[in-house]
């Protein structure tokens, strides 16, 4: 049967020439250009969900995402933040050939998420970066990558919804910091729901500690949690110690 | 584009209506016989929707595209089965065996639909009508209902098969007139049909009356293909010379490959090579002949057609179908055409599902011959009914599969289940498999709210202790011995639990003692602000996932 030809529409989220892959609206302020620059490396040490959230904007816009070396990737949470599972290619166990796998996927996908099993040797890193620039994709590294154009990490986080023996996890407020090289040297920070109660990403009010204990114990989420003006701000290391989900 | 615009060859199309259901009924009944007459309310589902249903189900109000629940509402006794294209192909092998007794060159468009050139056989059997009658009778004798259409060109013949109660024979030269009354929806492209209807063009005749250049300008390559079809021409002008021999590719297996899996894998690489050769000449193929030879000297050869041009993955998939459907006793050479044959074929089909061995003493050779060549307009389709991966993505995935093996590149399918690990099925790239458990059902006991970002394929062993250092236990009635105070993953030092909830008890597979399990899940937040999904089963704690 002749089956039409509506397949070309899925190809890619834009031509290699336009230079940027989109990110979700709550994340745009974290990137100096408002999106992911093609040919660049974004390092995300620490949080698994943050790296997925960074990929989500491009995926939702139609890009294919390759994932290398992350056998424990939670596909449902990825779908929750906006990654389209039908455009995911998973290579869970690339073994020693992960650089070749990453290079092959960069040739076909607009975005590749990778966790290198070890710190890559300099020549391996050069080779992958050269492929990246030639193919015009974006490499998101779940871990560190010397010389990455952008680096994002979760500096503070707080789960809400869970009490001492009751409630359930409803969402997490995180403070995300970003810095990098070139235009990204100026550090940026945002407070986000990552994930929010619906599993998605949303902007959150800044600060931790202004939340009432009832919020933590109860099942309702704060629609507009009162911001703790004295807590939000630069004293991050202090904050990190203060991060407590109160047990009632 | 001026080549070969002569009227297309006479084609006979055999269409077995509701083939997915017939194939599924073969599974239910266990044999190919008396399937068409069986009065079972049966529906075949794909992605939770009905794709085909049996006559009695249709009488009860079941329709294509309905959700399972709606269909069961109309027909409470409905047997619903998931779609399995491999099963359909295997079952269709029995029909092909019958058709091949009339004409050795049968081309399969898809399971349930095949075509053959009518000129030779019609002369031998005393005319086109007589040939159609004999074919119908032979197939009915094996229990298969079918409709037969004959016209100029495959497209018109397929429409002719769907026309009337048993299909029609369109006289030579009458094809444009026959097509003129067909609705534009017959072109098979919902988008195009929708657009044409909004432009006031309702039949193929009206569409064919448009100037060809205008159709190409307005609707692009798919539009000009459709326009050619509407005029009763071949969809793409065939390349005049058929240099198949130099473009065919083959691989020999020494020692013979006992499993079909490596053969299918090799087929993919081989198809890539064939396509590379075609690309260099600016050609693409719409029909490919796949030949496999077994160690005991038998050959299986089949023509496969795909109007959307066959991608490497699609070729490999057809090689899989062909191997799955290969009867162990009689090859296509028909050494013994006898009474027990249909039964043998049915048994072969059943065998093919259970294990992946070839069952013919190993495969020694695989050959692909591009059979019908057309100029390449840079457009490839994969398998039917799938999210289409672009050519670039497919090439990348196939390259990684060539490096690490077929199973190494997967695509996730979200399915049902209670635990985070069973909610996702990983399907090797290029395979079409339904999810293990349907997702669109309530799963009592599954944990609501945001899903964990890290799901451990093998849960980490853990220790959960109360303030006094005793392991926390859960009774059969979901009562806790004490509140959890410490959580330790493996040998790591314990973390203080600052918030927790649970237990969410789950009893699964209680009806099947070997698989039955009772486990209770907890959510915990430890003092490093990490949230965990922890489970206890038979007194052993484990960490199933974390919400990082």
Top keywords for this entry?
heterodimer, A: 248 residues, alpha/beta, Rossmann fold, 2 domains, 9-stranded mixed sheet, two-stranded antiparallel sheet, 23% helix, globular, disordered N terminus, disordered C terminus, B: 548 residues, alpha+beta, Alpha-Beta Plaits, Dna Ligase, domain 1, 4 domains, 8-stranded mixed sheet, 6-stranded antiparallel barrel, 19 strands, 26% strand
Q: What share of residues are in beta strands of chain A? A: 15-25%
Within the CATH hierarchy, at the fold level, what is the topology of the largest domain in chain B? Alpha-Beta Plaits
Largest interface: A-B, 73 and 75 residues
Biggest beta sheet summary of chain B: 8 strands, mixed
Helices of chain B, by number, come to: 16
CATH superfamily of the largest domain in chain B: Reverse transcriptase/Diguanylate cyclase domain
Cα-based radius of gyration of chain A, to the nearest Å: 19 Å
Which percent bin holds the helix content of chain A?
10-25%
DSSP helix fraction of chain B: 25-40%
Q: Count of DSSP helices of chain A? A: 6
Could you give the count of β-strands of chain B? 19
Mean pLDDT of chain A: 77
Q: What does the radius of gyration of chain B come to?
A: 28 Å
Structural class of chain B: alpha+beta
Model regions low in confidence, pLDDT < 50 over at least 5 residues of chain B: 31-37, 239-243, 328-358, 379-387
CATH architecture of the largest domain in chain B: 2-Layer Sandwich
**Name of the CATH first level of the largest domain in chain B:** Alpha Beta
Please tell me the overall pLDDT of chain B. 78
